[in-house]
């Protein structure tokens, strides 16, 4: 069974299992409490240790960071509640099966492979995160913000070791992965809270005004990062999980919800992980910049945002352990998801081969710290590429009757390839990627217009094709 399952079906296993190709029956619906802890734990992980400091290297101001994250994360929650959860409880299908009904099985495989490759790059960036903690007692030279490749043999050996261990554990199956990750999540959340308070003490903060002054009016970006304004923070934080909400990946989770109001539980992930944890991690970097080592780093221009030393500077060995665990709890299930996606290409092979392929690719990616150091841009690209597929589901769901097109056309027509889906995605992706490249527009700024255009074009192409 596992060798034919998709990444989205893996998420379904977290939520309760089975019903891969049929609506979830009412006997298996779950209340909001089933989703609260999952989202809180999933979004306070290894990526947060990188993203927080990267905001500071992008020169954000206090208002940009604190208020921008508040609004951007609210928009993400609203997207989950009124789009993802709303459609999920109406159809109660996985993203995979829903997309297959519309696009056909051939295009779904293309989506799975693209998703799997992005997952591998994300897992690789978490190997970098873990290596910065493991490397502290080994005296490893930390990767700098503008490093592309490995900076020494020690870094290479640590990444290879972490990659091998993670791949072996992921290959044992998701029961092992999920149980250990759930056990570790409270430790990681506690570490973020402690790091935040310790960093505030190191910065001498005794009032909200002094907290606000940490970032002040912002500054020049560091290490080749682009300058983040208020709108960069709002839009980026909204679409940091674009593939999950407007991209509809979390249909596979919320199809188990009793009602769409369970979508509000995503606020636990956004405001525990993407607000508290990002700001706590940013405080770690701010505190480090006040130390003699931080001052020397700024003077040299060789900017490092390695999570390991930042956490160690705040809470010692507990920080090292927390960073290793956070990187692991992100990388391990991510490799498992990627492996299941790749397995769709080799369905007759043992399921473990998909995981080994994913782990190997992730390990190679981990040798290049640029994936971690450019995580803001990578996450923007991930959402930009995959989110428009969700627009196809959204626009069909809400507008198929008004447009006079058949719902689930590939299933109805008995075809494996619906060209309306490919054409809509290709035109929207091509147009807005070109605009982003030609006019140096941050990709997150064009994710929403690309998503809207893809949905509209899908309706237009479907109308034309089905008429013929």
UniProtKB/TrEMBL annotation:
Entry keyword annotation includes Transmembrane: yes
Leader sequence segment: none
Annotated transmembrane regions: 62-83, 117-140, 152-171, 183-208, 228-247, 268-289, 309-331, 351-372, 378-399, 420-435, 441-461
UniProt entry keywords in alphabetical sequence: Membrane, Transmembrane, Transmembrane helix
Keyword Transmembrane helix: yes
Name of the protein: Purine-cytosine permease-like protein
Species name: Neolewinella antarctica
């Amino acid at each position: 069974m596992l060798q034919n399952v998709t990444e989205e079906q893996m998420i379904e296993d977290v939520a309760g299992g089975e019903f891969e190709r049929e609506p979830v029956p009412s006997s298996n619906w779950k209340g909001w409490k089933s989703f609260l802890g999952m989202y809180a734990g999933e979004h306070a992980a290894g990526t947060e240790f990188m993203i927080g400091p990267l905001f500071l290297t992008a020169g954000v101001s206090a208002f940009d960071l604190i208020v921008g994250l508040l609004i951007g994360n609210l928009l993400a929650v609203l997207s989950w509640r009124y789009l993802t959860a709303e459609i999920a409880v109406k159809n109660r299908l996985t993203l995979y099966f829903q997309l297959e009904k519309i696009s056909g099985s051939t295009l779904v495989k293309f989506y799975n492979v693209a998703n799997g490759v992005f997952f591998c790059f994300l897992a690789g960036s978490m190997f970098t995160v873990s290596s910065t903690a493991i490397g502290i007692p080994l005296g490893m030279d930390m990767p700098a913000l503008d490093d592309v490749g490995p900076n020494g043999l020690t870094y290479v050996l640590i990444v290879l070791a972490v990659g091998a261990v993670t791949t072996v554990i992921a290959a044992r199956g998701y029961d092992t992965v999920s149980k250990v990750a759930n056990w570790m999540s409270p430790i990681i959340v506690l570490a973020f809270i402690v790091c935040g308070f310790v960093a505030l003490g190191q910065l001498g903060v005794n009032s909200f005004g002094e907290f606000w002054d940490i970032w002040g009016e912002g500054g020049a970006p560091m290490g080749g990062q682009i300058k983040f304004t208020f709108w960069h923070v709002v839009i980026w934080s909204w679409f940091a999980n674009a593939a999950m909400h407007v991209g509809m990946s979390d249909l596979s989770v919320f199809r188990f919800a009793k009602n769409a109001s369970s979508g509000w539980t995503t606020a636990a992930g956004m405001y525990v992980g993407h607000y508290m944890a990002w700001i706590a991690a940013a405080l770690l970097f701010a505190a480090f910049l006040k130390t003699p080592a931080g001052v020397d780093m700024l003077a040299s221009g060789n900017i490092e945002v390695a999570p390991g030393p930042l956490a160690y500077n705040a809470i010692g060995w507990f920080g090292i352990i927390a960073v290793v665990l956070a990187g692991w709890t992100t990388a391990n299930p991510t490799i498992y998801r990627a492996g299941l996606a790749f397995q769709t290409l080799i369905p007759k092979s043992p399921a473990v081969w998909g995981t080994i392929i994913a782990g190997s690719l992730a390990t190679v990616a981990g040798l290049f710290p640029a994936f971690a150091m450019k995580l803001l841009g990578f996450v923007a690209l991930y959402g930009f590429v995959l989110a428009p597929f969700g627009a196809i589901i959204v626009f069909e769901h809400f507008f198929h009757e008004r447009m006079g097109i058949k719902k689930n056309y590939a299933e109805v027509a008995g075809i494996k390839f619906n060209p309306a889906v490919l054409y809509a995605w290709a035109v929207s992706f091509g147009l807005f990627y070109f605009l982003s490249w030609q006019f140096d527009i941050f990709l997150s700024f064009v994710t929403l217009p690309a998503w809207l255009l893809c949905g509209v074009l899908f309706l237009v192409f479907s109308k034309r094709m089905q008429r013929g």
